[in-house]
Amino acid sequence: MKDIFEIVETIKQIKGLQTDNEVAESINVTYDALTNRKARRSIPFKEIVAFCEKEGISLNRIFFWEEKSVVPDETHQMLAYIFKDPIERRKMDAEIARAYEKLKERELATRNKKGA
Known about the structure:
Helix content: over 70%
Radius of gyration: 15 Å
Number of domains: 1
Number of helices: 7
Shape: globular
Strand content: under 5%
Largest sheet: none
C-alpha cells in the first residue's frame, strides 16, 4: 500500500496539480490538516474515498499501484487486512460501507435514467 506521500503525488499526477495545497483543496481538507497527516504518516481515508467517488477514480489507483478497478468489497478486504488496529478497522469499515452504498445508489440511478 502507498504511504501518504505517494498518495499525494498520485493525486497530483491524476489531477494535474502542482502543490500540496491544491491536493488539500481537492480532497476537502485544509493545507494544515494535510501537512499534519503527512507529519504523522496518517492517511485521511474518509476524505480520499469521497474524492475518489466524486472523481470516478479507482481506490486501487490511489492506495495501491494498480490501474485496473476492482470490486469495492475486494478493496475493502485489502484495506481492512492491512490495518491491524481494531478501532481504525471499524472506522474504516463504516466509511467504506457508506461510500460503497452511495456508489451503488448512483449506479442504480444511472441505470434507471438509461432505462427510462
